[in-house]
């Protein structure tokens, strides 16, 4: 990574000689008098590096890209805009793993957050304080780097997203969900303290007791209240190995009731540490689940079941963490006991023992494979929803067995339940009101000129949620007008607006979310 960063610095330095910075008209000329002016770039490499995102669905160029060397530089830039007669928008960009241009800042400045790390991604400070061990990680760090740094102390964060190459600030601006969230809550529930640069350019340290409004606002706040430059992340003792179990179902009722049974078990000793699941719409999509887990024989067997079933099949995924070979017999006994209580298809339980890091970093393996096939940077019209427990069977029959019945596209559809009590209602993120709600993620890859078809299917999914009052909430939401945002946030909207007026009164921050218009 240091090598890549060095290469990147050399390229940007080189291009700044070839393309000396000409200040675009949308930016105030007084910027040139600031000492941070040299950290701005408008060269083609910089501009194209931020012009799209992982979704690869749209393109937008900012007026300039900012490469800060410290949080103070970001504070200076924002404060300058805030006090300028010609204010401009400022959008922090982590890795740009958004789908719908959430990092864009047309006519504004995109802050390349990775520039803060200077390639030194092991700069996580670990503090061990009994049950309250924590890591102070800067906002631009990738979660994989936080994991690697904490493992050196025998510790690790309590909850991970499925993919570890997003930044700390990027996932905390959304929620950060994954298979451990049923027990631990989302990543935003596992943070003790933040450093945030507000829309006035002030650097504020906040927590549940200190500036709580900013703390709760920033967590799940879609970048609207400030730039997160440090997060104090809760840790737990790390384990070394994972018993990774996958079970196949043909009956959605048995599948969901087993998932719900598993997420109701609070004790790590008697339940899984991680619970997720998938829907496989038809036999055509079975090979897509192969990954590092299933053998060719397993895939053949599951394909036969899918053909025979003539409808979606479901995959329940559970993982138990453990330390070393001495406890394997205990793990065997616990998992056996758990599986005896579950109603999967007989003969369709699959299990692997893998190093825990390999399990947590499993999507990176997929990334490597897809990159080698040229399939990683294709358009991704992803749609992520939270579906109330009482509506999940209705959702299944109208969508998986309804409009998507004939769908043969390249897709991974995640489905797993979470416990609402692990979320804090003070935080910005909007979730359903029921105690248990499901994550349903349509992770489409448009590989066969089928982008329009997939986007159309997403729209149909959203229409069904609306028409049949399924009360779904979008996760990683995308709306383009205030009325839709107001509906999305529901009762939280007035607090969201009040926090915006307090912490970013000129609506300078993260304009790509399209929630507020910049105020002059
Ligand atoms: P960016 O896309 O760069 O930014 C996202 C938004 O946050 C933008 O509005 C930006 O302005 C703002 N922002 C960025 N950095 C900061 C900061 N430091 N302070 C304040 N605002 C900031 N999410 C899950 O919850 N669970 C998953 O399992 C999961 N799996 C994923 C798998 C893949 C392959 C991908 C591509 C994404 C996945 N995501 C998942 C979504 C991911 O968590 C979000 O897209 C996240 O925002 C990505 O982080 P980023 O650093 O790329 O943010």
UniProtKB/TrEMBL annotation:
It comes from the Eukaryota. The keyword Flavoprotein applies. One of its GO terms (molecular function) is FAD binding. InterPro entries: Cytok_DH_C_sf, Cytokinin_DH_FAD/cytokin-bd, FAD-bd_PCMH, FAD-bd_PCMH-like_sf, FAD-bd_PCMH_sub1, FAD-bd_PCMH_sub2, FAD-linked_Oxase-like_C, FAD-linked_Oxidoreductases_BP. Residues 58-238 form the FAD-binding PCMH-type domain. The keyword Flavoprotein applies. Its EC number is 1.5.99.12. Its cofactor is FAD. Keywords: FAD, Flavoprotein, Membrane, Oxidoreductase, Transmembrane, Transmembrane helix. Pfam families: Cytokin-bind, FAD_binding_4. It is an enzyme of class 1 (oxidoreductase). The chain crosses the membrane at residues 2-23. GO terms for biological process: cytokinin metabolic process. Gene3D superfamilies: 3.30.465.10, FAD-linked oxidases, C-terminal domain (3.40.462.10), Uridine Diphospho-n-acetylenolpyruvylglucosamine Reductase, domain 2 (3.30.43.10). Belongs to the oxygen-dependent FAD-linked oxidoreductase family. Monomer. This is cytokinin dehydrogenase.
């Amino acid at each position: 990574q240091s090598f890549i960063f060095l290469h990147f610095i050399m390229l940007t330095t080189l291009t700044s000689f070839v393309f000396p910075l000409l200040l675009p008209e949308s930016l105030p000329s007084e910027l040139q008098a600031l000492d941070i002016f040299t950290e701005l770039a408008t060269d083609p490499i910089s501009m194209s590096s931020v012009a799209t995102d992982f979704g690869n669905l749209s393109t937008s160029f900012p007026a300039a890209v900012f490469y800060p060397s410290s949080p103070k530089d970001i504070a200076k830039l924002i404060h300058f805009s805030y006090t300028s007669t010609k204010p401009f928008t400022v959008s922090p960009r982590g890795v740009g793993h958004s789908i719908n241009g959430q990092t864009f800042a047309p006519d504004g400045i995109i802050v390349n957050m990775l520039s803060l790390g200077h390639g030194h991604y092991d700069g996580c400070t670990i503090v061990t304080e009994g049950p309250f061990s924590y890591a102070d990680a800067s906002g631009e760090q990738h979660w994989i780097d936080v994991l690697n740094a904490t493992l050196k102390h025998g510790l690790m964060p309590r909850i991970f997203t499925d993919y570890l190459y997003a930044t700390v600030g990027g996932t905390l601006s959304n929620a950060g969900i994954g298979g451990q969230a049923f027990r631990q809550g989302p990543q935003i529930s596992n943070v003790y303290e933040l450093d945030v640069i507000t829309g006035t350019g002030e650097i504020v340290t906040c927590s549940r007791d200190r500036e709580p409004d900013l703390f709760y606002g920033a967590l799940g706040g879609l970048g609207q209240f400030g730039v997160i430059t440090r997060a104090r992340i809760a840790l737990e003792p790390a384990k070394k190995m994972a018993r990774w179990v996958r079970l196949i179902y043909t009956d959605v009722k048995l599948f969901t009731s087993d998932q719900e049974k598993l997420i109701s078990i609070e004790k790590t000793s008697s339940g899984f540490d991680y619970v997720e699941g998938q829907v496989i719409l038809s036999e055509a999509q079975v090979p897509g689940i192969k990954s590092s887990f299933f053998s060719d024989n397993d895939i053949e067997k599951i394909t036969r079941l899918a053909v025979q079933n003539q409808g979606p099949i479901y995959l329940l995924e559970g993982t138990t963490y453990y330390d070393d070979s001495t406890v394997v017999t205990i793990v065997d006994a616990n998992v056996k006991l758990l599986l005896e209580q579950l109603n999967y298809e007989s003969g369709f339980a699959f299990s692997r023992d893998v190093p825990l890091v390999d399990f947590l970093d499993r999507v990176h393996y997929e990334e490597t494979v897809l990159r080698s096939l040229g399939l990683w940077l294709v358009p991704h019209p992803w749609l992520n929803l939270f579906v109330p427990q009482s509506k999940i069977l209705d959702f299944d029959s109208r969508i998986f067995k309804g409009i998507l019945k004939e769908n043969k596209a390249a897709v991974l559809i995640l489905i797993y339940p979470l416990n609402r009590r692990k979320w804090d209602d003070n935080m910005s993120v909007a979730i359903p009101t029921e105690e248990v709600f499901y994550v349903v993620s349509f992770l489409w890859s448009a590989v066969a000129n089928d982008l329009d078809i997939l986007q159309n299917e997403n729209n149909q999914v959203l229409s069904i949620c609306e028409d049949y009052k399924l009360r779904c909430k979008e996760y990683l939401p995308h709306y383009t007008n205030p009325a839709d945002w107001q509906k999305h946030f529901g009762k939280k909207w007035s607090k969201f607006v009040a926090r915006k007026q307090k912490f970013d009164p000129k609506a300078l921050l993260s304009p790509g979310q399209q929630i507020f218009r910049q105020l002059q």
